[in-house]
Amino acid sequence: MPTSRIRSTLVALAGLGVAGIAYACAARRGPSQSLAAGDAAQKVYVAPGSYDEFYAFLSGGYSGQVAVYGLPSGRLLKLIPVFSQFPEDGYGYNEETKPLFQTTYGSIPWDDSHHPELSMTDGVPDGRWLFINANNTPRVARIDLTRFETSEILQIPNSAGGHASPFATPDTKYIVSATRFSVPIPNTDVPIDSYKQNFKGTLSFIRADQPGKMDIAFQILMPGYDYDLGHAGKGPSDGWFFFTSYNSEQANTKLEENASQNDKDYIAAVNYRRAEECIAQGKARSFPSAYTHNWVDSASHIATSEKKTSVTMLSPADCPGVAYYLPTPKSPHGVDVDPTGEYIVAGGKLATVIPVHSFTKLQKAIAAKAFDKEIEGIPVLKYDAVMAGEVQKPGLGPLHTEFDGKGYAYTSMFISSEVVKWKLGTWEVVDRIPTYYSIGHLMIPGGDSKKPWGKYLLAMNKITKDRYLPTGPEMAQSAQLIDISGDKMKLLLDFPTIGEPHYAQAIPASLIKDKQIKFDKLAENKNPWVTRSESDGGITRSGKRVDIKMIAIRSHFAPDNFDGVEVGDTVVFHVTNIEQDWDILHGFAVLGMNNSELILEPGQTRSLRWVPTGPGVYPFYCTDFCSALHQEMQGYIRVSPAGSSVKLMANVSKKAQAQLANDPGARR
Ligand code: RUQ
Ligand code: CUA
């Protein structure tokens, strides 16, 4: 949840007279108070050389990345760059990955990533892919979990703020994205205070089960509220999707006050199989919409960006039975479906209870037409007709709920800084544990699926304050690992996180670790600039562009001396790491290089664009300490004044030089 929202929640709650409690809670606690379980160290200790039991994927929030941790140790294993450039490995700087950032707004080198979602088979995480959303310029990304790399990004048109995303259906046929900000659709120049007439929301269903082929299957045009989060039904509720919305007041200014008027907002319950039916019957229309689809080719590892021009748009009024509104107190944030698929839990952040809807009652209420009214073709069900129960006095500021698969739910309470454990069906609170401080999301491995691995719970806290050694005005945010294997929750571990984790997902390591690609086979490298052997490298010119092909292997580049580049040229280095061994990487950087360096995975080709600014001799070197002679892994490129008579030359083998001599582009 972004800071502004936190603030508005606090202000709104101040109106309810409860902010004082939040302050009191935080002030009571200090670093001296260790509430960790007595055997905590033993429970999180993973001996040197041993593996963690779970992979945990934490969103990086405003860093735009995903951080991979081992649990229970809390050890950081990897940062996966997704929506932001990553100088550590050249992601978004090198020529192969740049197209991933292409949107209809141009190239976007930064975004805010919120909610990781593992692909599922029959409602259980399967470890094939991880999806994550870009919140600011709405997009969804696929991460290939055989490589832990971003392989695809799809832009969502007719949307602004892709927050309710990218939650998956139990079969991963669809992932979704709903617009946080309603806007004119199509977006045109209208007065902002014409919000009620002109602003709309969309719910996007994205076909996601075919790698490299993500696309908008259809969009549903909704009333102009703020759509916040979502989760798919499962089991009996399979085929349905639930989205929270707030601002049913349709305020366009001072939302902290004006969007906190109604006692209840809505959960939108969407029957997406009904949507498929209506579309098959021709009840949707083709709606001109510009967006991009970017994907990485699996053989060349080169990303391509493709422009798309229209989507299938469905209006609920044209498809009766596709959507219903469930009244839900108050300004709900998370919506979470229990493992059985019967209960739909809302995190009503301004509510004094945790409301739970029943899918069985929802079906009956629809059959009995227990409607309060209709909004733009969407029947509003009666609260009492769909409500299963309310958790009384849970604490303050409920946001998100996860499940342990043993009949219990765990809800994060932002304002009262705690996790509250309660029983499904009886709605009684059975345990609570403080968090340090201001918990946002929480995560149990598989905790939003049909089969939670209910051993640990991870609390992701917004405010760190005194939990770690101070590091100036900004502290890393923090996660806390809690043991939920017994009746009482036990705090085990604190660890710092990257950026601002919103949601997270975790899966037993055994489902992923043996599927890892260790290197790419050089013989299968389809990059057009691949260099497969020492003698294949060289330098060619085409107008003002100079292409350099070279290999990297322990402990040299070949070729490693280049002549004939002139000021005014654009040089593109194409470097192939010809190692055929796991985890043997090389790097590449040139003096004066003003974008990034490259990191080269074994068997892979990466290309870097460089515009030299003046004449001289420029060294390049390997940036990854690869061998005892890593410091010897270097070379030079000579840059001459424009119009100079220095011949294009690379110090390659005789055979390669002969080939260069026959290549008309190679010499002038
Ligand atoms: S949302 S806690 Cu994206 Cu809850 Cu952040
Ligand atoms: Cu290659 Cu250091």
* Bulk shape: globular
Rg (C-alpha, Å) = 27 Å
Low-confidence stretches: 1-32, 664-668
- How many helices? The count is 9
Task: Provide a short characterization of the protein structure.
The protein is mainly beta and 668 residues long. The protein contains nine helices and 45 strands.
Structure, explained:
By secondary structure, the chain is mainly β. Helix content is 10%, strand content 41%. It contains nine helices and 45 strands. The strands form ten sheets. Strands 6, 7, 8, 9, 10, 11, 12, 13, 17 and 18 form a ten-stranded mixed β-sheet that branches. The chain is globular. The structure holds (dicuprio-$l^{3}-sulfanyl)-sulfanyl-copper and dinuclear copper ion. (dicuprio-$l^{3}-sulfanyl)-sulfanyl-copper binds next to strand 26 and strand 30. (dicuprio-$l^{3}-sulfanyl)-sulfanyl-copper binds at residues 1, 114-115, 163, 333, 399-400, 440-441, 502.
Protein traits:
668 residues; mainly beta; ten-stranded mixed β-sheet; six-stranded mixed β-sheet; 9 helices; 45 strands; disordered C terminus; binds (dicuprio-$l^{3}-sulfanyl)-sulfanyl-copper; binds dinuclear copper ion
